[in-house]
C-alpha cells in the first residue's frame, strides 16, 4: 500500500469512531450543498426523477429531489464508517435481514447463485454480508485510481470478494464458477458498452440494459436473487433485503429477459426509492438523443 493511501486508511480508521448518525447528518448536508450548487449531479438527478415520477407536480418533484440528494450525500459519508470500521465490525450495523431463507435455499440447491445488486443503499455493506455467508466473486471495473484497490483489500479483510474484471476472461471465469455451484455478484443496472446491451423500458423509458446477467442465468441454470442494503433513518443502521427474480429473466429472447431484469431492479428501488443512485445517466445511449443535455 502506498504511503499516501495508508495515510488515508489511518484517517478512515479515526473518523470511523464517529457515530453513524453523525456521519449521515454530514452526508445529508453534503447533499443539500450539492443541490444548492445546482451542478451536473443535481441536474442529472432531477432529469431522472422527472422520468421515473412524471405524475408529480413541481413542488413534489423539488421535495423528492431534495430527499434523493440527501441520501446520495449519506452514501458518500457512510463509507467512512464502513471502510474505516472494517468488514467484521461493520456487520454489526445490520439490524435485520429480510428474505435470507431465499438465499439459504438457493445455496442448498448447489446450482449456482447470481446476486443482482442494484446501485441502491449501501452496497459495500451488502458485499460484507454476502461474503460472511459464502465465497463471492463480483464483476467489476477497476477504479480510476489503481492504488485504491489496495485500500479496498485492506478494509475488506477476510470478507473481500474475488474481483473479476469485466472482460472476456472474467466472464468465462463467472461461467465456470456458477457451473461449479458458486456465487457471483453483478450490478444489474450497470450501463453496458456499445453493442453489448438491449434497449428496454426502465421506469417507463428505454434504457440500455445488460444482457450478460440473463445469459449467465439461462446458460448455467443458476438462481438469480436481487439484494440491497437499505439505509435506516436516523443512523440506526441497515436492513438487508433478498428478493426473488421476476419470471422470464432467463428467457432466450433478450428483450423478454432484459425487461424482467429491469422489473427486478424497479421492485428493489420502489422499496427505498430515494436511496437509488439517480445521478447516473441511465437513459442515455450510444447514438441516442440524451435527456441530460438541455439545462
Description:
The longest helix has 28 residues, at 58-85. The chain has helices spanning 3-15, 20-37, 40-52, 58-85, 87-90, 100-109, 123-133, 148-156, 168-179, 212-220, 254-271; strands at 94-98, 113-116, 137-140, 162-165, 183-186, 197-202, 205-210, 223-231, 238-244. It is 49% helix and 17% strand.
- Number of DSSP E strands: 9
Average pLDDT: 93
Helix content: 40-55%
Structural class of the helices, strands and pairings?
A: alpha/beta
Q: Indicate the proportion of strand residues.
A: 15-25%
Give the quaternary arrangement of the chains: single chain
The geometry reads as globular
Largest sheet descriptor: 7 strands, mixed
The H/E string reads: HHHHHEHEHEHEHEEEHEEH
Low-confidence stretches: none
Report the radius of gyration as a whole number of Å.
Answer: 19 Å
In spatial order, strands of the major sheet run 1-9-8-2-5-3-4
Termini gap: 42 Å
Figure out the total of helices.
Answer: 11
Task: Describe, in short, the structure shown.
Helix content is 49%, strand content 17%. The chain has 295 residues and is α/β, with parallel strands linked by helices. Strand 3, helix 8 and strand 4 form a beta-alpha-beta unit.
Please outline the helices and strands.
Elements: H1 3-15, H2 20-37, H3 40-52, H4 58-85, H5 87-90, E1 94-98, H6 100-109, E2 113-116, H7 123-133, E3 137-140, H8 148-156, E4 162-165, H9 168-179, E5 183-186, E6 197-202, E7 205-210, H10 212-220, E8 223-231, E9 238-244, H11 254-271
Parallel strand pairs: 1-9, 2-5, 2-8, 3-4, 3-5
Antiparallel strand pairs: 6-7, 8-9
Helix pairs in contact: 1-4, 2-4, 3-4
